[in-house]
Design brief:
The complex is a heterodimer of chains A (about 300) and B (about 425). Chain A has about 300 residues and is mainly alpha-helical. Helices cover about 70% and strands about 0% of the residues of chain A. Chain A has twelve helices and no strands. With about 425 residues, chain B is α/β, with parallel strands linked by helices. In chain B, the strands form four sheets. In chain B, strands 3, 6, 11 and 12 form a four-stranded mixed beta sheet that branches. In chain B, strand 1, helix 3 and strand 2 form a beta-alpha-beta unit. The relative contact order of chain B is 0.15. Classes of the chains: A mainly alpha (about 300), B alpha/beta (about 425). The interface between A and B is large, with 41 and 45 residues.
Chain lengths: ~300, ~425
């Protein structure tokens, strides 16, 4: 039986502790207000038949589960959820692979390395709306430069109507999302690679390991925590992405690119069904929570 | 000691900084003790050429007439305008002078956000002298706003293309289709025309709804009548949509265009004809000289002229009585003939006032006469009986019509039946 040892803090330690709490308290309170209050309001709205917040003609006293029963029996919701998952996993996996390859390349020393690194990272800070507008013109089905290039390379004979057909519209928004998100992976994975000591690679080379063996046995395990964290952060960002898809296709053609965030926006701000939109928000939150839970074992190892 | 002092300073700065980010309701409300009242006036037109000059003159004149009143006119981009306004109303901080695209009027008034204006309007001659489209701002016999612009859609065309092809500007549906076919040119034979006879929008937004509905209403059809969806599946509506579909099937129009691209390509001379509102005239003014002189406007060559309420002014229901009086005074001032003439001069769009239009005004703007004619004959494209469900109703129309004009080009009759069933199930009328 182990005896419990009481930890006695010195006066200086207690003072430091109080100072830390004093600094952290305003930010924590502010964050709590920004997260907890809206979350509580959203939960409340999801159980009400409300047109919009601030409506003077709504009855906000009622409680109903009608929004949830309507949601789960609505085919549009399940299709939007399916599209969201396909969109997220496609864009996330490809942008991760591109980011990883570029990080590995940038980790080597070569001429104009800094310039190349800057150019690669340029896409990341560009707002989603600007990226969307750029891709509308690039992928214009009539005069867009993508079709011109593909035709000049004889890859296509006729213009592809990128934004007018369901499948190609989804491909376009995925490409735009990949373009916007691979720099994040490049940046984080490059930072992770910089933290791996060269000694490991030297020792592995001496032992006769080839490049693939060094990559799978040294690089990947060393990057595991960075990979999981960056996949989680970028995955959540891509899943919640609204501005890019809305700018490029508006969720069309014929709902082909209508993901959960767009469905939520349409219900709240176009159809003024705030109660139903809040329900979609709660389900989106649940999906994001599942992402976090899946990543939790790796995050625990890294941070706790 | 120094460390402690520095820590306290930083802590205090953080706390005061956070406190300064917010402001009390007391500070936000007009400070009646100093006598000055500020009326907030957001608009998507605050920095648009033509509109900006008009609004700035109106604001300056109103402030001159009311010494202790200031109007804060500021720009909000059109794309986010309705969302911004909705958020302001939801937060109970509505702008005192509320300017909205009128198609959202019914949804806003359904939430009790607007002040009824019947008593105020009775003391003026606005209703007698105003466009009939003003009636669209009524709910249960009460007016909730004053129309600023009601317009018909017109046909803009490139005269040089017609002259080169040796054909006349169309005056009926058959000559229109013939012109669209003749003026579409695929010079290198790769199946992708370089020049198109017609330009149509094909993206998921309300401009697509407006354009498709222009064909339906223009050719004598409609989506609904007082909430009854029978007209949606009428032969007239079907024929109108088959015509619209044929433009896409035969490649007489580019595909996937947003409204901005449509207007841009027309001004660049890539399309011979487009249907649009009077606001395109200002875009034509900015076109290259050699193209500008060939870009003209005429009536849409269909049996009816489609059109709609465009934008209107409203008073929020929850502001103070004093502010309501001032906003009403501003609205009345803007409806005066002098200001309506100024509107037409600066903006080039027709005034809703029947008494403000005279020969002098028409002479100054070559397109204005056409816009006035089209506005007078305009048939409303908003869905009759579904105004409060405008967002959802139009989305079902957009989704349904999009399948008709996108490969593999859904059957018009079947799609209309499906749309009717879906709208009946979802909107329950």
């Amino acid at each position: 039986m182990t005896a419990k040892i009481k930890v006695i803090r010195t006066t200086s330690e207690k003072k430091n502790h109080r100072m830390a709490v004093a600094f952290a308290l305003p930010a924590a309170a502010f964050s709590l207000l920004l997260i907890i209050y809206p979350l509580f309001t959203t939960i409340k709205l999801s159980f009400q038949d409300v047109k919009f917040i601030g409506s003077l003609t709504d009855d906000t006293a009622g409680f109903t589960i009608a929004n949830y029963t309507k949601l789960f029996s609505n085919a549009d919701f399940w299709r939007a959820l399916g599209r969201s998952l396909i969109f997220t996993f496609s864009a996330l996996s490809i942008s991760f692979l591109i980011g990883l390859v570029l990080a590995l390349l940038l980790n080597k020393k070569f001429h104009c390395q800094k310039l190349v690194r800057t150019l690669i990272l340029l896409a990341w800070p560009i707002p989603g709306v600007i990226v969307g507008l750029l891709f509308i013109w690039l992928f214009d089905g009539n005069y867009g430069i993508i079709n011109t290039i593909l035709k000049s390379l004889h890859i296509i004979d006729q213009n592809v109507k990128w934004l007018s057909a369901g499948n190609t519209a989804m491909v376009t928004v995925i490409i735009a999302t990949i373009w916007k998100s691979y720099p994040f992976f490049t940046l984080t994975l490059l930072a992770g690679l910089k933290g791996i000591s060269e000694d490991y690679y030297e020792a592995a080379s001496i032992d006769g390991a080839n490049a693939w063996q060094r990559f799978t046995n040294i690089t990947l395990p060393a990057l595991q925590s960075v990979i999981v964290t960056s996949l989680l952060l970028n995955g959540l960002w891509i899943f919640r992405n609204y501005d890019l898809i809305y700018t490029i296709t508006g969720g069309g053609p014929n709902q082909a690119t209508e993901t959960l965030p767009l469905l939520l926006y349409n219900q709240a701000f176009k159809y003024y069904n705030m109660g139903y939109a809040s329900t979609i928000g709660m389900v989106s939150l649940l999906v994001c929570f599942i992402f976090v839970v899946l990543a939790m074992p790796s995050l625990k190892k890294q941070f706790y | 000691m120094k460390k402690k002092f520095l820590s306290l300073i930083l802590c205090a700065t953080l706390v005061f900084g956070l406190a300064a980010c917010g402001s009390t309701k007391k500070e936000k409300k007009n400070d009646s003790s100093s006598g000055e009242i500020v009326l907030e006036f957001p608009s998507w037109q605050a920095t648009e050429p033509g509109f900006q000059e008009f609004w700035e003159e109106a604001v300056a004149e109103f402030e001159k007439r009311n010494e202790n009143v200031k109007i804060n006119l500021y720009q909000v981009p059109f794309d986010s305008y309705v969302d911004t306004l909705t958020t302001l109303y939801a937060a109970d901080t509505p702008p005192q002078i509320t300017h909205i695209p009128s198609r959202y009027f019914a949804q806003f008034s359904d939430m009790g956000w607007f002040e009824p204006l019947n008593d105020r309007l009775k003391q003026t001659d606005i209703i007698e002298n105003w466009s009939n489209l003003q009636d669209g701002l009524q709910v249960d016999g009460k007016y909730y706003g004053v129309l600023l612009l009601g317009n018909g859609y017109s046909m803009y065309y490139n005269k040089a293309m017609f002259d080169e092809a040796g054909i006349d500007v169309p005056t009926d549906v058959n000559s229109f289709m013939e012109a669209a076919k003749t003026l579409t040119k695929d010079e290198n034979g790769d199946g992708d025309p370089e020049i198109y006879g017609f330009g149509a929008c094909q993206v998921t937004d309300t401009n697509f709804y407006n354009e498709a509905t222009s064909f339906v209403v223009g050719l004598g059809g409609k989506w609904s009548e007082n909430g009854n969806l029978t007209p949606m599946t009428s032969d007239t509506t079907k024929e109108a949509l088959k015509l619209y579909q044929s433009l896409f099937m035969n490649n007489y129009t580019p595909t996937g265009l947003s409204v901005e691209q449509k207007r841009q390509y027309f001004v660049e001379g890539k399309m011979a004809m487009i249907f649009d509102g009077p606001w395109v005239a200002s875009l034509i003014n900015d076109a290259a000289e050699e193209v500008k002189e060939n870009l003209l406007v005429t009536t849409i060559p269909f049996e009816s002229v489609p059109g709609s309420m465009s934008n209107s002014l409203h008073i929020p229901a929850t502001i103070s009585d004093k502010e309501k009086e001032l906003v009403w005074e501003f609205i009345q001032m803007v409806t005066e003939n002098d200001f309506q003439k100024l509107y037409m001069e600066k903006v080039g769009s027709p005034s809703p006032s029947k008494t403000a239009i005279d020969d002098e005004v028409l002479e100054e703007n070559p397109f204005l006469g056409q816009f006035v004619k089209d506005a007078e004959k305009a048939q409303e494209i908003l869905p009759s009986g579904y105004e409060k469900d405008y967002g959802e109703f139009t989305q079902y129309i957009i989704d349904g019509v999009m399948t008709m004009v996108t490969d593999p080009y859904a059957d018009v009759a079947t799609t209309l039946d499906d749309m009717k069933t879906k709208i009946t199930n979802e909107l329950g009328k």
